[in-house]
Amino acid sequence: MPDPVRLDPREGYDRWSEVYDDELNPLVILEEPVVRKWIGDPRGGRIADVGCGTGRHALWLAEGGARVDAYDASPGMMARARRKLASHAVRFIEHCLPQALPSPDDAYDIVLFALVADHLPDLEAAFAELKRVTRPGGRLVFTVLHPSMNLLGITARFTDPHSGGEVRVAACEHTYADYVMAPLRAGWTIDDLLERKADDTLAAKTPRAQKYIGWPMLLAMHLRKNG
Fold first, then answer.
1. Domain range enclosing 145
2. Which is it for strands 46-50 and 67-72: parallel, antiparallel or unpaired?
3. Which residues lie closer than 8 Å to 26 by C-beta, 6 or more apart?
4. Is 47 left (phi over 0), alpha (psi -120 to 50) or beta?
5. C-alpha dihedral sign at 146, 25, 78, 113
6. Is 192 helix (H, G, I), strand (E, B) or coil?
7. Which CA distances in Å does 136 have to 97, 106, 110, 115?
8. Which residue of 50, 151, 181, 221 is surrounded by the most CB atoms within 10 Å?
9. Coil, strand, or helix at residue 37?
10. Residue 120 above 70 pLDDT?
11. Which residues contact 56 (CB under 8 A, 6 or more apart)?
12. Domain for residue 49, yes or no?
C-alpha cells in the first residue's frame, strides 16, 4: 500500500470536509453524548464553538436556542457548516488558536473546544485565550482524541474520496498530563474529567472501532472559570 499523505491541519481538514459528515467516526460517536450532557439546555446561552468543523455541534446548539459564534481554521469545513446552518443566525469566523479571538473579554457563557487540541502546539496559550472570552462562572467543554491513541500510532486520518488513499492530519503528541495541566496553568478549574473506551457497543455502530476495543479513545473535561 502507498504511504499515507500527510497534510497540515488547514489543508487536511479542507480536504476532509468533503466526507467528514458521511463517516461513522467512532470518536465522534463517543464524544457527542458527552458534550450534549455537559452543555445541557443551551437556550438563551451565548456559546462559542471553537473548532466548529462542519457545524455538527453548532447546529443543535442553534436549534436549541443558543446564540452561537462558530470558529474554525479550515475554510472547507466552514463552507460545509455555513450550508448546514444557512437558516440559523450563527456567526462564522475563520480563526486559529492561540491567536486572539475577535471577541471581548467575558463574552461567552459556554465555550466548546471539541476535537481540536491535538493539532495545537501551545495548549496553555490556547486555554488562556478561551478563558479570556468566557464570563466569570462560565464553562468550557473540552474533548480530544485520547493520548493513548499515540501508542497505536493513531492520529486524525481519513480516506481521500478522490484517490482512495489515507490522509493523515499533522498532530502533536501531547500527553495526558499535558491536557490536564495546560488548563490548570491557564487558571481553569476542572469540574469533571472522563475517558471513554471503545467497546462492543461502539463496534456494533461502526466497524472502524473494532480494532480499538479496550483502548481509551476520548478524553473530555468540563471546566469552569472562577472569578
1. 5-217
2. parallel
3. 198, 202, 205, 206, 208, 209, 212, 217
4. beta
5. negative
6. strand
7. 21, 7, 11, 24
8. 50
9. helix
10. yes
11. 21, 28, 32
12. yes
Residues 6 or more apart in contact with residue 11 via CB below 8 angstroms:
none
Considering the domain boundaries, does residue 202 fall inside one?
A: yes
CATH number, domain of 111, equals 3.40.50.150
Give the residue from 187, 45, 192, 58 showing the smallest Cα distance to 127.
Answer: 187
* pLDDT tens readout for residues 39-74: 999 999 999 999 999 999 999 999 999 999 999 999
188-224: b (≥16 Cβ within 10 Å) or e? beeeeeeebbbeeebbeebebbeebeebbbbbbbbbe
Single-letter amino acid, residue 153: G
User: Is 66 inside any structural domain?
Assistant: yes
Provide the number of structural domains found in the chain.
1
Task: Mark 120-129 as b/e (b = at least 16 C-beta within 10 Å).
Answer: beebbebbbb
Q: Note whether 172 and 155 are within 8 A (CB).
A: no
Q: pLDDT tens, 123-151?
A: 999 999 999 999 999 999 999 999 999 99
54 is a domain residue: yes
